[in-house]
Write a structure and sequence with these properties.
Family: Belongs to the GTP-binding SRP family. FtsY subfamily.
Oligomer: single chain
Shape: elongated
Helix content: 40-55%
Radius of gyration: 21 Å
Subunit structure: Part of the signal recognition particle protein translocation system, which is composed of SRP and FtsY.
Structural class: alpha/beta
Protein name: Signal recognition particle receptor FtsY
Order of helices and strands: HHHHHHEHEHEHEHEHEHEEH
Catalytic activity: GTP + H2O = GDP + phosphate + H(+)
Main location: membrane
Strand content: 5-15%
Number of strands: 8
């Protein structure tokens, strides 16, 4: 199946709109960097390096991109600044393809024995619970039987918000209220998922990076009780990051990946920020696939991350 065939016109329009602020910010800086220049020389590359770093692409990824463009300049001898946009698009798409796993084909999940269990982690305020709700809605729309577990029991709003999402998208939520044992909620969610032949069980977890030891212990406990019913679980430990925080999202990703095993990433709130470049850096630097991105308020604005389409939208004139 080709990339374009499943990436619908609606999704592409939503992605384009969601990245509008990031794109405008980037091109304003890029145009200032190349004004009065006709060829891509050392000065232009220095300016471009600054543009990428200040667009939250991150230092390491920026260095890789500049190195790749320098190679092209050396090989082609003469590169016009008018070609820079296309060159950037090609080199960044190439970099992400080399450093990351394959793109998802829509909201698909692998076939597993029993329910597919997703454990969701992330600090408060990143859009964790909203992402879970939207994810549940997308799975439900594909005809999947979904169960949610409200195991972020240290924050009343998180439990209430997940219950509201469950009602909104008509998905059952396992909850024991606030200040209860998160592992007990996870236990019930896994048990019910197994008994009811659910396709997907999504478990919300504590939204704080208190100390690494506490976080590790808490998540280990949750994993252990879930495995009583579904031995291979969790199949995915998803870290939700707020794209609008730019470099802070990098720091959170580093902290969480040190504290626990993270197998996928979701980057939210890209529509309200000019820091969309952070997705490029995060996708490159953490050898963990970015699975989903949030580019708007609607359920359909939670999209599977397609590297080719993302770069295309980001660099579209």
């Amino acid at each position: 199946m080709g990339l374009k065939s499943f990436f619908s016109k609606d999704k592409k329009e939503s992605l384009d709109k969601g990245l509008e602020k990031s794109k405008q910010n980037f091109f304003t800086k890029l145009n200032k960097a190349v004004v009065g220049k006709s060829t891509v020389d050392a000065d232009v590359l220095d300016e471009l390096e600054e543009v990428l770093i200040t667009s939250d692409v991150g230092v390491e990824t920026t260095v890789k991109i500049i190195d790749r463009i320098e190679e092209r300049v050396a090989k082609d001898k003469y590169l016009n600044t008018s070609e820079l946009n296309q060159i950037l698009r090609e080199e960044i798409a190439g970099l992400l393809s080399e450093n990351n796993t394959k793109d998802l084909v829509d909201f698909d999940i692998p076939k597993v024995d029993g329910p597919y269990v997703i454990l969701v982690v992330g600090v408060n305020g990143v859009g964790k619970t909203t992402t879970i709700g939207k994810l549940a809605a997308q799975f439900k729309a594909l005809g999947k039987n979904v169960i949610l577990g409200a195991a972020d029991t240290f924050r009343a709003a998180a439990v209430e918000q997940l219950i509201m999402w469950g009602e909104r998208v008509d998905v059952p939520v396992v909850s024991k209220g606030m200040n209860t044992d998160p592992a007990a909620v996870a236990f019930e969610a896994a048990k019910r998922g197994k008994e009811e032949n659910a396709d997907v069980v999504i478990i919300d977890t504590a939204g704080r990076l208190h100390t690494k030891v506490n976080l590790m212990n808490e998540l280990s406990k949750i994993k252990n009780v879930v495995q009583k019913f579904i031995p291979e679980a969790p199949h995915d430990v998803m870290l939700v990051l707020d794209g609008s925080t730019g470099q802070n999202a990098f720091i959170q990703a580093k902290e969480f990946t040190k504290a626990t095993e993270v197998t996928s990433l979701a980057v939210t709130k890209l529509d309200g920020t000019a820091k969309g470049g952070v997705v490029i850096g995060i996708s490159d630097q953490f050898k963990i696939p970015v699975k989903y991105i949030g580019v708007g308020e609607k359920v359909k604005d939670l999209q599977v991350f397609n590297k080719t389409e993302f770069v295309d939208s980001f660099f579209k004139n």
